[in-house]
Design a protein that fits this description.
- The protein is an alpha/beta fold.
- It has two domains: 173 residues, Glycogen Phosphorylase B (Rossmann fold, 3-Layer(aba) Sandwich), CATH 3.40.50; 153 residues, Rossmann fold (3-Layer(aba) Sandwich), CATH 3.40.50.
- It is built from 13 helices and twelve strands.
- The strands form two sheets. Strands 2-1-3-4-5-6 form a six-stranded parallel beta sheet. Strands 9-8-7-10-11-12 form a six-stranded parallel beta sheet, with helices on both faces.
- Helix 10 links the parallel strand 11 and strand 12.
- Helix 1 crosses helix 13, helix 6 packs across helix 11 and helix 9 crosses helix 12.
């Protein structure tokens, strides 16, 4: 048997800093943070997975768990729960990042059903970590999980990597940045339409970082609105390039209908103001330090861009708010709070 304090199950994700996937990054920072604690012995189970071998890898994960004797088993998303239950491991902590399958049907019916099934397994965990109060309330209503078994622990940001460069000022040609997946519900279409209006009165450049099936549609829209020469599609942006990119941007726009995105915290940590669609959990992460607008409302998004980019004083004010607000979030703080959840299990006599 392999003894440890905490065993992390990251299936179907793999703990990585540079993959561009938020759940990979979450698992990486959590495992790294707990591993650095002198009193914590940590293991993780993370067979590399794709859609074609999903079920096989889920069963493999259960088999790999058998020889591990941990005081706590933590599924870093709901997808690791089935393997833990099959392996009959306890006590279980699970992190639920969102309940989007209960709000949007994004994929094929089979994938959608799989998402909902794994979310439903959360009621069998001993403790549930959620990343916002918005989803905490949804869990209570949708799955009838009692409040005492739910902890809200928000994401962090790496302040060592994401820092504001000295003497930052608004660029003469305003640099507007979008960074995220390119699909119909991430809102990049709304941003292009608002940016086209902005270009009537401002010298500006739009940088779109990310990839997805919707990229061609967005290029066509840029052509149709006559701003293609002012829009640059960057493709996937690696982790090492992000700090310079955030520091070169005057504003990050997060128009997603899915709520919070990690890039908002990274941008704010660099002193880059953020405009975000006010939906789901986004307000909890942006607070009063970001400009919020109704999701899908191109007119209001245009107004927010105009306010922020109107002059140097306005930009400096919002930049300062972003920097200060970002101090509320760190990966170390997140890890410490997760460890407090583990201690709560101890107090409830799950540990022996």
């Amino acid at each position: 048997m392999v003894d440890c304090d905490v065993c992390y199950v990251t299936f179907p994700n793999y703990p990585a800093k540079n993959s561009g996937r938020g759940l990979d990054r979450y698992a990486y920072e959590l495992i790294r943070g707990t591993s650095q604690k002198s009193d914590m012995k940590v293991q993780f189970v993370a067979p590399r997975t794709n859609r074609a071998d999903y079920v096989i890898r889920e069963l493999e994960t259960a088999v790999l768990l058998r020889p591990i004797d941990a005081k706590i088993y933590h599924a870093t998303s709901e997808y690791g729960l089935a393997s833990l239950l099959l392996a009959r491991k306890r006590p279980i902590v699970v992190t639920i990042h969102d309940l989007l399958p209960r709000l949007f049907s994004r994929y094929s019916p089979l994938i959608y059903a799989n998402q909902k099934l794994h979310l439903a397994l959360a009621k069998y965990a001993n403790e549930v970590i959620v990343t916002s109060n918005f989803y905490s309330n949804m869990l209570k209503q949708e799955l009838n999980i009692p409040s005492h078994r739910i902890d809200t622990i928000r994401y962090g940001v790496d302040h060592q990597s994401f820092r504001s460069k000295a003497g930052r000022r608004r660029c003469e040609t305003a640099q507007v940045l979008y960074l995220g997946g390119l699909n119909s519900l991430k809102g990049a279409k709304d941003l292009i339409e608002a940016f086209a209006r902005l270009c009537v009165s401002h010298e500006a450049q739009l940088l779109i970082g990310g990839s997805g099936k919707y990229a061609g549609n967005l290029r066509d829209l840029a052509d149709k609105t006559g701003i293609s020469e002012k829009v640059s599609f960057l493709g996937f942006v690696g982790e090492e390039q992000l700090p310079d990119l955030y520091n070169s941007a005057d504003v990050l726009v997060w128009p997603s209908y899915f709520g919070f995105g990690l890039s908002t915290l990274e941008a704010m940590s660099c002193g880059t103001p953020v405009i975000g669609a006010n939906c789901l959990d986004s307000q909890e992460y942006l607070g009063e330090a970001g400009l919020l607008y109704p999701p899908g409302n191109v007119e209001k998004l245009f107004e927010a861009l105009s306010i922020l980019l109107s002059n140097q004083d306005s930009w400096t004010d919002w930049s300062g708010k972003a920097l200060k607000w970002s101090e509320n979030f760190s990966w170390r703080k997140m890890t410490d709070q997760v460890c407090s959840t583990y201690k709560k299990l101890d107090e409830n006599q799950y540990l022996h």
